[in-house]
Amino acid sequence: MKNEQPPIFLVDDDPVSLSLYRTILEYHGIDQLRLFQDATQVLPQIPLTGCSLILLDLHMPDVSGQDILRCIKADHPAIPVIVVTADEHVDTAVECMKLGAFDYLRKPVEGSRLWASVRHALEIGELQQEVGSLSRRIKSKKLANPEAFAGIITDSESMKSIFRYIEAIAGSRKPILVSGESGTGKELIAKVIHALSRREGSFVAVNVAGLDDTMFSDTLFGHVRGAFTGAEGERKGLVENAAAGTLFLDEIGELTPGSQIKLLRLLEEGEFYPLGTDRVRTSSARIVAATNADLRIEQDAEQFRKDLYFRLIAHHIEVPPLRERLEDLPLLVEYFLAQAAAELGRKKPEVPVELYALLESYDFPGNVRELQSLLFDSISVQSGRTFSTAAIKDYLDKRRPGTGGAVPVPVAASARLSYRGRFPTLQEAEEYLITEALKKSGGNQSLAARLLGINQSTLSRRQKKQRAVT
Predict the structure, then answer these.
(1) Domain range for residue 382?
(2) Average pLDDT in the 270-296 region?
(3) Helices (DSSP H) in 234-381: which residue ranges?
Protein backbone atom coordinates (compact mmCIF):
# COMPACT_ATOMS: atom_id res chain seq x y z
CA MET A 1 0.00 0.00 0.00
CA LYS A 2 2.99 2.22 -0.14
CA ASN A 3 2.19 5.81 -1.15
CA GLU A 4 -1.36 4.87 -2.14
CA GLN A 5 -3.15 6.74 0.63
CA PRO A 6 -2.60 9.31 3.37
CA PRO A 7 -0.95 7.92 6.51
CA ILE A 8 -2.67 6.20 9.40
CA PHE A 9 -2.21 7.95 12.75
CA LEU A 10 -1.44 5.74 15.77
CA VAL A 11 -2.09 7.68 18.98
CA ASP A 12 -1.13 6.14 22.36
CA ASP A 13 1.06 7.32 25.23
CA ASP A 14 2.34 3.75 25.67
CA PRO A 15 5.33 3.12 23.32
CA VAL A 16 4.89 -0.65 23.63
CA SER A 17 1.31 -0.43 22.31
CA LEU A 18 2.43 1.83 19.47
CA SER A 19 5.14 -0.63 18.50
CA LEU A 20 2.63 -3.51 18.55
CA TYR A 21 0.14 -1.64 16.33
CA ARG A 22 2.87 -0.70 13.87
CA THR A 23 4.11 -4.31 13.66
CA ILE A 24 0.61 -5.62 12.97
CA LEU A 25 -0.14 -3.07 10.23
CA GLU A 26 3.26 -3.33 8.56
CA TYR A 27 2.84 -7.11 8.44
CA HIS A 28 -0.29 -6.49 6.35
CA GLY A 29 1.54 -4.16 3.98
CA ILE A 30 0.71 -0.75 5.47
CA ASP A 31 3.82 1.34 5.98
CA GLN A 32 2.39 4.85 5.78
CA LEU A 33 2.13 5.39 9.55
CA ARG A 34 2.54 8.34 11.94
CA LEU A 35 3.07 7.55 15.64
CA PHE A 36 2.03 9.99 18.40
CA GLN A 37 2.54 9.71 22.14
CA ASP A 38 1.27 13.26 22.59
CA ALA A 39 -2.38 13.54 21.50
CA THR A 40 -2.20 17.34 21.28
CA GLN A 41 -0.02 17.00 18.14
CA VAL A 42 -2.65 15.08 16.19
CA LEU A 43 -5.02 17.85 15.07
CA PRO A 44 -2.30 20.24 13.80
CA GLN A 45 -0.70 17.41 11.80
CA ILE A 46 -3.81 16.37 9.83
CA PRO A 47 -3.79 19.35 7.39
CA LEU A 48 -0.05 18.86 6.75
CA THR A 49 0.02 15.18 5.71
CA GLY A 50 -3.62 14.15 5.43
CA CYS A 51 -4.93 11.15 7.30
CA SER A 52 -6.84 8.06 6.18
CA LEU A 53 -7.58 6.65 9.67
CA ILE A 54 -6.81 7.32 13.35
CA LEU A 55 -6.23 4.61 15.95
CA LEU A 56 -6.83 6.49 19.20
CA ASP A 57 -6.17 5.48 22.80
CA LEU A 58 -8.97 6.83 24.98
CA HIS A 59 -6.98 7.57 28.14
CA MET A 60 -4.17 9.99 27.41
CA PRO A 61 -2.30 12.43 29.69
CA ASP A 62 -3.01 16.17 29.38
CA VAL A 63 -6.09 15.70 27.17
CA SER A 64 -9.02 13.28 27.09
CA GLY A 65 -9.27 10.89 24.16
CA GLN A 66 -12.97 11.69 24.00
CA ASP A 67 -12.17 15.38 23.60
CA ILE A 68 -9.73 14.55 20.77
CA LEU A 69 -12.39 12.34 19.16
CA ARG A 70 -14.95 15.14 19.42
CA CYS A 71 -12.60 17.64 17.75
CA ILE A 72 -11.58 15.24 14.98
CA LYS A 73 -15.18 14.47 14.03
CA ALA A 74 -16.06 18.18 14.14
CA ASP A 75 -13.19 19.32 11.89
CA HIS A 76 -12.57 16.16 9.82
CA PRO A 77 -15.78 14.09 9.83
CA ALA A 78 -14.67 11.86 6.92
CA ILE A 79 -11.68 10.42 8.83
CA PRO A 80 -12.63 7.15 10.57
CA VAL A 81 -11.49 6.87 14.19
CA ILE A 82 -11.00 3.52 15.92
CA VAL A 83 -10.94 3.89 19.70
CA VAL A 84 -8.70 1.58 21.75
CA THR A 85 -8.95 1.46 25.53
CA ALA A 86 -8.63 -0.77 28.60
CA ASP A 87 -11.93 0.64 29.88
CA GLU A 88 -14.53 -2.14 30.06
CA HIS A 89 -17.54 0.08 30.81
CA VAL A 90 -20.31 -0.25 28.24
CA ASP A 91 -21.30 3.40 28.75
CA THR A 92 -17.86 4.51 27.55
CA ALA A 93 -18.19 2.51 24.34
CA VAL A 94 -21.69 3.87 23.73
CA GLU A 95 -20.50 7.45 24.27
CA CYS A 96 -17.61 7.00 21.81
CA MET A 97 -19.89 5.58 19.15
CA LYS A 98 -22.27 8.50 19.62
CA LEU A 99 -19.35 10.89 19.10
CA GLY A 100 -18.68 9.23 15.75
CA ALA A 101 -16.10 6.52 16.42
CA PHE A 102 -15.94 3.91 13.65
CA ASP A 103 -15.14 1.07 16.05
CA TYR A 104 -14.28 0.41 19.70
CA LEU A 105 -11.55 -2.08 20.68
CA ARG A 106 -10.58 -3.19 24.17
CA LYS A 107 -7.00 -3.82 25.26
CA PRO A 108 -5.21 -6.13 24.95
CA VAL A 109 -6.10 -6.05 21.24
CA GLU A 110 -5.70 -9.21 19.18
CA GLY A 111 -3.81 -8.68 15.93
CA SER A 112 -6.54 -10.23 13.77
CA ARG A 113 -9.25 -8.09 15.42
CA LEU A 114 -7.23 -4.92 14.96
CA TRP A 115 -6.46 -5.65 11.31
CA ALA A 116 -10.09 -6.56 10.55
CA SER A 117 -11.28 -3.24 11.98
CA VAL A 118 -8.61 -1.21 10.17
CA ARG A 119 -9.21 -2.97 6.85
CA HIS A 120 -12.97 -2.48 7.12
CA ALA A 121 -12.55 1.22 7.89
CA LEU A 122 -10.19 1.72 4.93
CA GLU A 123 -12.54 -0.14 2.57
CA ILE A 124 -15.50 1.98 3.64
CA GLY A 125 -13.43 5.13 3.17
CA GLU A 126 -12.30 4.03 -0.29
CA LEU A 127 -15.86 3.21 -1.29
CA GLN A 128 -17.08 6.65 -0.24
CA GLN A 129 -14.28 8.31 -2.22
CA GLU A 130 -15.00 6.20 -5.30
CA VAL A 131 -18.73 6.92 -5.20
CA GLY A 132 -18.02 10.63 -4.95
CA SER A 133 -15.43 10.51 -7.72
CA LEU A 134 -17.67 8.47 -10.02
CA SER A 135 -20.56 10.86 -9.43
CA ARG A 136 -18.37 13.83 -10.39
CA ARG A 137 -17.07 12.06 -13.51
CA ILE A 138 -20.56 11.16 -14.73
CA LYS A 139 -21.86 14.67 -14.18
CA SER A 140 -18.92 16.36 -15.91
CA LYS A 141 -18.76 13.97 -18.91
CA LYS A 142 -15.15 15.12 -19.31
CA LEU A 143 -11.98 13.12 -18.87
CA ALA A 144 -9.41 14.43 -16.42
CA ASN A 145 -6.62 12.46 -18.15
CA PRO A 146 -7.57 12.04 -21.84
CA GLU A 147 -3.95 11.36 -22.77
CA ALA A 148 -4.06 8.10 -20.81
CA PHE A 149 -6.60 6.70 -23.29
CA ALA A 150 -4.73 7.74 -26.45
CA GLY A 151 -3.87 4.12 -27.24
CA ILE A 152 -7.55 3.13 -27.48
CA ILE A 153 -8.99 4.28 -30.81
CA THR A 154 -12.66 5.14 -30.33
CA ASP A 155 -15.37 7.74 -30.75
CA SER A 156 -18.01 5.61 -29.07
CA GLU A 157 -20.00 7.11 -26.24
CA SER A 158 -20.19 3.70 -24.55
CA MET A 159 -16.38 3.55 -24.50
CA LYS A 160 -16.10 7.12 -23.23
CA SER A 161 -18.45 6.18 -20.39
CA ILE A 162 -16.09 3.32 -19.53
CA PHE A 163 -13.16 5.76 -19.57
CA ARG A 164 -14.88 8.01 -17.02
CA TYR A 165 -15.56 4.98 -14.83
CA ILE A 166 -11.90 3.92 -15.07
CA GLU A 167 -10.76 7.36 -13.92
CA ALA A 168 -13.04 7.08 -10.90
CA ILE A 169 -11.81 3.65 -9.78
CA ALA A 170 -8.18 3.62 -10.93
CA GLY A 171 -6.82 4.57 -7.51
CA SER A 172 -8.77 1.88 -5.66
CA ARG A 173 -6.94 -1.09 -4.14
CA LYS A 174 -9.87 -3.42 -4.86
CA PRO A 175 -9.76 -5.99 -7.68
CA ILE A 176 -11.23 -5.18 -11.10
CA LEU A 177 -12.84 -7.65 -13.48
CA VAL A 178 -12.65 -6.72 -17.18
CA SER A 179 -14.96 -8.86 -19.30
CA GLY A 180 -15.66 -8.90 -23.01
CA GLU A 181 -15.20 -10.93 -26.15
CA SER A 182 -11.75 -11.84 -27.49
CA GLY A 183 -10.10 -9.00 -29.36
CA THR A 184 -11.96 -6.13 -27.68
CA GLY A 185 -8.86 -4.73 -25.96
CA LYS A 186 -9.16 -5.93 -22.37
CA GLU A 187 -5.41 -5.81 -21.76
CA LEU A 188 -5.28 -2.25 -23.11
CA ILE A 189 -7.95 -1.34 -20.56
CA ALA A 190 -5.90 -2.99 -17.79
CA LYS A 191 -2.79 -1.01 -18.79
CA VAL A 192 -4.73 2.26 -18.67
CA ILE A 193 -6.01 1.38 -15.20
CA HIS A 194 -2.45 0.78 -14.05
CA ALA A 195 -1.20 4.04 -15.58
CA LEU A 196 -3.94 6.08 -13.92
CA SER A 197 -3.49 4.33 -10.57
CA ARG A 198 -0.08 6.05 -10.18
CA ARG A 199 1.17 2.91 -8.47
CA GLU A 200 4.94 2.68 -8.00
CA GLY A 201 5.30 -0.93 -9.09
CA SER A 202 5.22 -2.53 -12.52
CA PHE A 203 2.39 -3.80 -14.71
CA VAL A 204 2.83 -7.59 -14.84
CA ALA A 205 0.61 -9.68 -17.14
CA VAL A 206 0.07 -13.44 -17.28
CA ASN A 207 -2.39 -15.65 -19.15
CA VAL A 208 -3.52 -18.26 -16.63
CA ALA A 209 -5.36 -20.47 -19.14
CA GLY A 210 -3.85 -23.95 -19.21
CA LEU A 211 -1.92 -23.61 -15.95
CA ASP A 212 -2.44 -26.54 -13.56
CA ASP A 213 -2.37 -25.92 -9.80
CA THR A 214 1.38 -26.44 -9.48
CA MET A 215 2.26 -24.25 -12.46
CA PHE A 216 -0.17 -21.58 -11.24
CA SER A 217 1.47 -21.53 -7.79
CA ASP A 218 4.98 -21.49 -9.18
CA THR A 219 4.18 -18.79 -11.75
CA LEU A 220 2.38 -16.47 -9.36
CA PHE A 221 3.92 -17.26 -5.98
CA GLY A 222 7.39 -18.57 -6.88
CA HIS A 223 9.32 -21.25 -5.01
CA VAL A 224 12.13 -21.72 -2.55
CA ARG A 225 15.23 -23.85 -2.99
CA GLY A 226 14.46 -27.56 -2.91
CA ALA A 227 10.72 -27.10 -3.48
CA PHE A 228 10.88 -29.69 -6.27
CA THR A 229 13.43 -31.52 -8.37
CA GLY A 230 15.51 -28.94 -10.21
CA ALA A 231 14.66 -26.06 -7.86
CA GLU A 232 18.26 -25.14 -7.16
CA GLY A 233 17.50 -21.68 -5.88
CA GLU A 234 14.70 -19.36 -4.80
CA ARG A 235 12.59 -17.73 -7.52
CA LYS A 236 10.15 -14.91 -7.01
CA GLY A 237 6.72 -15.26 -8.54
CA LEU A 238 4.79 -12.67 -10.51
CA VAL A 239 2.93 -11.53 -7.39
CA GLU A 240 6.19 -10.28 -5.90
CA ASN A 241 7.33 -8.88 -9.25
CA ALA A 242 4.13 -6.81 -9.28
CA ALA A 243 4.66 -5.51 -5.73
CA ALA A 244 3.11 -2.04 -5.33
CA GLY A 245 2.00 -2.40 -8.96
CA THR A 246 -0.67 -4.24 -10.96
CA LEU A 247 -0.97 -7.97 -11.62
CA PHE A 248 -3.09 -8.65 -14.73
CA LEU A 249 -4.56 -12.16 -14.87
CA ASP A 250 -5.96 -12.91 -18.33
CA GLU A 251 -8.47 -15.72 -19.03
CA ILE A 252 -9.38 -15.93 -15.35
CA GLY A 253 -12.36 -18.14 -16.16
CA GLU A 254 -9.98 -20.98 -17.08
CA LEU A 255 -8.57 -21.37 -13.55
CA THR A 256 -8.75 -24.83 -11.98
CA PRO A 257 -10.71 -25.20 -8.71
CA GLY A 258 -7.49 -25.53 -6.68
CA SER A 259 -6.01 -22.39 -8.21
CA GLN A 260 -9.23 -20.51 -7.57
CA ILE A 261 -8.87 -21.22 -3.83
CA LYS A 262 -5.30 -19.89 -3.82
CA LEU A 263 -6.32 -16.75 -5.68
CA LEU A 264 -9.23 -16.21 -3.29
CA ARG A 265 -6.85 -16.20 -0.30
CA LEU A 266 -4.62 -13.70 -2.08
CA LEU A 267 -7.59 -11.40 -2.66
CA GLU A 268 -9.09 -11.78 0.82
CA GLU A 269 -5.97 -11.65 2.97
CA GLY A 270 -3.26 -10.36 0.65
CA GLU A 271 -1.28 -13.49 1.57
CA PHE A 272 0.33 -16.34 -0.36
CA TYR A 273 2.76 -19.23 0.10
CA PRO A 274 5.67 -19.86 -2.31
CA LEU A 275 6.08 -23.52 -3.24
CA GLY A 276 8.14 -25.41 -0.70
CA THR A 277 7.51 -23.25 2.35
CA ASP A 278 4.80 -22.76 4.95
CA ARG A 279 5.95 -19.22 5.72
CA VAL A 280 3.28 -16.80 4.59
CA ARG A 281 4.17 -13.73 2.53
CA THR A 282 2.10 -10.64 1.88
CA SER A 283 1.28 -8.93 -1.37
CA SER A 284 0.75 -5.26 -2.21
CA ALA A 285 -0.14 -5.92 -5.87
CA ARG A 286 -3.47 -4.74 -7.21
CA ILE A 287 -5.32 -7.48 -9.15
CA VAL A 288 -6.98 -6.84 -12.51
CA ALA A 289 -8.54 -9.95 -14.05
CA ALA A 290 -9.98 -10.46 -17.53
CA THR A 291 -12.28 -13.04 -19.09
CA ASN A 292 -14.17 -13.62 -22.32
CA ALA A 293 -16.43 -16.12 -20.56
CA ASP A 294 -19.63 -15.34 -18.67
CA LEU A 295 -18.59 -16.17 -15.11
CA ARG A 296 -22.22 -16.22 -13.97
CA ILE A 297 -22.85 -19.17 -16.28
CA GLU A 298 -19.60 -20.75 -15.04
CA GLN A 299 -20.93 -20.44 -11.47
CA ASP A 300 -24.21 -22.14 -12.35
CA ALA A 301 -22.21 -24.99 -13.87
CA GLU A 302 -20.10 -25.09 -10.67
CA GLN A 303 -16.96 -24.32 -12.69
CA PHE A 304 -16.20 -21.04 -10.95
CA ARG A 305 -16.41 -20.22 -7.23
CA LYS A 306 -19.08 -17.70 -6.26
CA ASP A 307 -17.00 -16.23 -3.44
CA LEU A 308 -14.11 -15.62 -5.85
CA TYR A 309 -16.46 -14.06 -8.39
CA PHE A 310 -17.86 -11.60 -5.87
CA ARG A 311 -14.33 -10.69 -4.78
CA LEU A 312 -13.31 -10.00 -8.37
CA ILE A 313 -16.28 -7.78 -9.22
CA ALA A 314 -15.60 -5.14 -6.62
CA HIS A 315 -15.32 -3.14 -9.84
CA HIS A 316 -16.54 -4.49 -13.18
CA ILE A 317 -15.90 -3.25 -16.73
CA GLU A 318 -17.74 -4.80 -19.67
CA VAL A 319 -15.99 -3.91 -22.94
CA PRO A 320 -18.53 -3.81 -25.81
CA PRO A 321 -17.82 -5.80 -29.01
CA LEU A 322 -16.97 -3.96 -32.22
CA ARG A 323 -20.38 -4.71 -33.77
CA GLU A 324 -21.98 -2.61 -31.01
CA ARG A 325 -19.79 0.43 -31.72
CA LEU A 326 -19.68 0.58 -35.51
CA GLU A 327 -19.13 4.34 -35.30
CA ASP A 328 -15.51 3.44 -34.51
CA LEU A 329 -14.95 1.72 -37.87
CA PRO A 330 -13.76 4.82 -39.80
CA LEU A 331 -11.25 5.73 -37.08
CA LEU A 332 -9.97 2.17 -36.76
CA VAL A 333 -9.70 1.65 -40.52
CA GLU A 334 -7.70 4.87 -40.99
CA TYR A 335 -5.45 4.04 -38.03
CA PHE A 336 -4.71 0.44 -39.04
CA LEU A 337 -4.21 1.26 -42.72
CA ALA A 338 -1.73 4.00 -41.80
CA GLN A 339 0.03 1.61 -39.43
CA ALA A 340 0.18 -1.18 -42.02
CA ALA A 341 1.38 1.14 -44.78
CA ALA A 342 4.15 2.48 -42.55
CA GLU A 343 5.34 -1.02 -41.64
CA LEU A 344 5.31 -2.09 -45.30
CA GLY A 345 7.04 1.11 -46.44
CA ARG A 346 4.11 2.18 -48.59
CA LYS A 347 1.87 5.20 -48.91
CA LYS A 348 -1.50 4.82 -47.22
CA PRO A 349 -4.16 4.16 -49.87
CA GLU A 350 -7.34 6.19 -50.20
CA VAL A 351 -10.36 4.54 -48.61
CA PRO A 352 -13.46 4.09 -50.81
CA VAL A 353 -16.73 4.86 -49.06
CA GLU A 354 -18.13 1.41 -49.85
CA LEU A 355 -15.46 -0.19 -47.64
CA TYR A 356 -17.22 0.98 -44.49
CA ALA A 357 -20.57 -0.39 -45.61
CA LEU A 358 -18.89 -3.68 -46.47
CA LEU A 359 -17.28 -3.93 -43.03
CA GLU A 360 -20.52 -3.00 -41.29
CA SER A 361 -22.15 -6.03 -42.92
CA TYR A 362 -19.90 -8.35 -40.89
CA ASP A 363 -20.26 -9.15 -37.19
CA PHE A 364 -16.49 -9.42 -36.43
CA PRO A 365 -16.40 -12.28 -33.92
CA GLY A 366 -12.68 -11.46 -33.43
CA ASN A 367 -13.51 -7.79 -32.88
CA VAL A 368 -10.80 -5.10 -33.21
CA ARG A 369 -8.00 -7.67 -33.40
CA GLU A 370 -9.69 -9.37 -36.36
CA LEU A 371 -10.23 -6.03 -38.12
CA GLN A 372 -6.57 -5.16 -37.67
CA SER A 373 -5.40 -8.50 -39.10
CA LEU A 374 -7.84 -8.26 -42.01
CA LEU A 375 -6.67 -4.78 -43.02
CA PHE A 376 -2.97 -5.65 -42.65
CA ASP A 377 -3.41 -8.73 -44.83
CA SER A 378 -5.48 -6.85 -47.42
CA ILE A 379 -3.04 -3.98 -47.86
CA SER A 380 -0.12 -6.39 -48.30
CA VAL A 381 -1.59 -7.82 -51.53
CA GLN A 382 -2.42 -4.55 -53.33
CA SER A 383 -0.49 -1.63 -54.68
CA GLY A 384 -3.01 0.87 -56.11
CA ARG A 385 -3.61 4.38 -54.81
CA THR A 386 -7.16 3.42 -53.80
CA PHE A 387 -7.77 0.59 -51.38
CA SER A 388 -9.31 -2.39 -53.17
CA THR A 389 -12.14 -4.18 -51.40
CA ALA A 390 -11.59 -7.43 -53.32
CA ALA A 391 -9.60 -9.11 -50.55
CA ILE A 392 -12.17 -8.00 -47.96
CA LYS A 393 -15.04 -9.43 -50.01
CA ASP A 394 -13.17 -12.70 -50.46
CA TYR A 395 -12.52 -12.92 -46.72
CA LEU A 396 -16.19 -12.32 -45.88
CA ASP A 397 -17.39 -14.84 -48.46
CA LYS A 398 -15.20 -17.50 -46.90
CA ARG A 399 -16.63 -16.71 -43.47
CA ARG A 400 -20.20 -17.18 -44.75
CA PRO A 401 -20.15 -20.49 -46.66
CA GLY A 402 -23.36 -21.52 -48.38
CA THR A 403 -24.88 -18.03 -48.44
CA GLY A 404 -24.11 -17.36 -52.09
CA GLY A 405 -21.98 -14.37 -51.16
CA ALA A 406 -24.67 -12.70 -49.06
CA VAL A 407 -23.48 -11.66 -45.62
CA PRO A 408 -26.36 -11.15 -43.18
CA VAL A 409 -26.15 -8.01 -41.08
CA PRO A 410 -26.43 -8.40 -37.27
CA VAL A 411 -29.16 -6.04 -36.16
CA ALA A 412 -28.14 -4.10 -33.07
CA ALA A 413 -30.79 -2.57 -30.82
CA SER A 414 -29.96 0.89 -32.16
CA ALA A 415 -30.50 -0.27 -35.77
CA ARG A 416 -33.97 -1.76 -35.35
CA LEU A 417 -36.72 -0.25 -37.47
CA SER A 418 -39.36 1.92 -35.85
CA TYR A 419 -42.38 3.76 -37.22
CA ARG A 420 -44.90 6.42 -36.31
CA GLY A 421 -48.42 6.86 -37.55
CA ARG A 422 -49.61 4.55 -40.30
CA PHE A 423 -47.93 1.14 -40.38
CA PRO A 424 -45.94 0.76 -43.65
CA THR A 425 -46.86 -1.90 -46.16
CA LEU A 426 -44.40 -4.66 -47.01
CA GLN A 427 -43.84 -3.12 -50.44
CA GLU A 428 -43.09 0.29 -48.90
CA ALA A 429 -40.66 -1.24 -46.40
CA GLU A 430 -38.89 -3.15 -49.17
CA GLU A 431 -38.56 -0.04 -51.33
CA TYR A 432 -37.15 1.91 -48.40
CA LEU A 433 -34.59 -0.75 -47.48
CA ILE A 434 -33.37 -1.17 -51.05
CA THR A 435 -33.04 2.60 -51.49
CA GLU A 436 -31.11 3.00 -48.22
CA ALA A 437 -28.82 0.03 -48.96
CA LEU A 438 -27.92 1.51 -52.35
CA LYS A 439 -27.22 4.89 -50.74
CA LYS A 440 -25.03 3.32 -48.09
CA SER A 441 -23.07 1.28 -50.66
CA GLY A 442 -22.57 4.24 -52.99
CA GLY A 443 -24.70 2.58 -55.68
CA ASN A 444 -22.71 -0.66 -55.59
CA GLN A 445 -25.37 -3.34 -56.17
CA SER A 446 -23.18 -6.20 -55.01
CA LEU A 447 -22.50 -4.50 -51.69
CA ALA A 448 -26.13 -3.38 -51.33
CA ALA A 449 -27.20 -7.00 -51.73
CA ARG A 450 -24.78 -7.99 -48.97
CA LEU A 451 -26.27 -5.40 -46.66
CA LEU A 452 -29.78 -6.68 -47.40
CA GLY A 453 -28.74 -10.32 -46.94
CA ILE A 454 -29.76 -11.35 -50.47
CA ASN A 455 -28.04 -12.26 -53.73
CA GLN A 456 -27.30 -9.57 -56.31
CA SER A 457 -29.59 -11.31 -58.79
CA THR A 458 -32.44 -11.18 -56.25
CA LEU A 459 -31.84 -7.47 -55.73
CA SER A 460 -31.92 -6.85 -59.50
CA ARG A 461 -35.24 -8.71 -59.84
CA ARG A 462 -36.82 -6.71 -57.02
CA GLN A 463 -35.62 -3.43 -58.50
CA LYS A 464 -37.15 -4.38 -61.87
CA LYS A 465 -40.38 -5.29 -60.09
CA GLN A 466 -40.44 -1.91 -58.35
CA ARG A 467 -39.89 -0.05 -61.63
CA ALA A 468 -42.69 -2.04 -63.29
CA VAL A 469 -45.10 -1.15 -60.49
CA THR A 470 -44.24 2.54 -60.62
Answers:
(1) 323-399
(2) 93
(3) 238-241, 257-269, 295-300, 306-312, 329-344, 353-360, 367-380
